[in-house]
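wait is this the right file?? whatever heres the structure
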């Protein structure tokens, strides 16, 4: 049952271009001053497989957006983050649960495991990372000390515990530019900086959400050990296989949280 009392959006990343357990109500193409979002917005209710629960209740309607497009053909550095966030705000979304694939750096960030990050270090370099740049009446700096919404993150963690879904609480997300993966030396640098996981989509998404006053939390799926941390080179096959396993748990978790 969705007890969050907010209008929730899920931004699905690699491995989550659609929600298998959603009953779709409608689709909407939303235009924004920043261009088109990555995909039409999908409105629906989570379809609880085990119980009939609160199916079709209006309170449980959520919005789904595929960050990389439904065909998964928009790479992380080409995602129009501003259009995505603006579109969600425009349709009345108040809270966002982002799903992100990451590489594991800390020893417990095993491939396939889930983690709710609580901090970010931004290494991206070429992305438009603010709404506050043109036609300003005054310069604006948002507070971003704690980039993720603590209450929403806690709801995710509590729900996972109740549903017996293993999830790690707290991690620092290092956001890299991509689309290439990192070098082993870059990962050592990130580790020294205090990063526990590394991904390409956490920023500027989180900061743009904050600029729009949207609550934002993330569920990350560890897809691989980050560069140089295992004996194997990182292949798309390995990433896809681990994401597939992790996403099954994410769907279960979303079902318990929002269904
Ligand atoms: N690095 C950056 N982004 C990623 C990785 C990684 O190792 N795995 C999945 N997304």
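ok assuming it is, sequence goes like this
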């Amino acid at each position: 049952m969705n007890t969050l009392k907010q209008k929730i959006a899920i931004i699905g990343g690699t491995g989550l271009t659609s929600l298998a357990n959603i009953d779709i109500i409608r689709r909407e193409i939303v235009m924004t001053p920043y261009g088109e979002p990555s995909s039409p917005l999908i409105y629906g209710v989570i379809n609880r497989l085990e119980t009939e629960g609160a199916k079709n209740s209006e309170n449980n309607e959520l919005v789904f957006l595929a960050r990389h497009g439904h065909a998964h053909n928009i790479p992380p550095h080409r995602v129009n983050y501003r259009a995505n966030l603006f579109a969600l705000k425009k349709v009345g979304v108040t809270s966002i649960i982002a799903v992100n694939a990451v590489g594991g750096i800390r020893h417990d960030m095993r491939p396939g495991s889930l983690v709710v990050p609580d901090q970010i270090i931004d290494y991206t370099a070429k992305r438009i990372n603010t709404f506050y740049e043109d036609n300003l009446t005054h310069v604006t700096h948002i507070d971003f000390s704690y980039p993720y919404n603590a209450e929403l993150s806690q709801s995710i963690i509590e729900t996972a515990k109740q549903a017996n879904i293993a999830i790690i609480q707290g991690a620092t997300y290092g956001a890299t530019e991509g689309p290439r993966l990192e070098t082993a030396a870059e990962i050592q640098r990130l580790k020294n900086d205090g990063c526990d996981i590394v991904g390409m989509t956490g920023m500027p998404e989180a900061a743009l959400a904050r600029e729009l006053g949207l609550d934002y939390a993330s569920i990350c799926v560890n897809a691989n050990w980050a560069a140089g941390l295992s004996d194997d080179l990182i292949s798309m096959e390995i990433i896809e296989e681990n994401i597939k396993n992790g996403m099954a748990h994410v769907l279960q978790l979303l079902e318990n949280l929002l269904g």
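The chain has a mean pLDDT of 92. so i think its the right one actually
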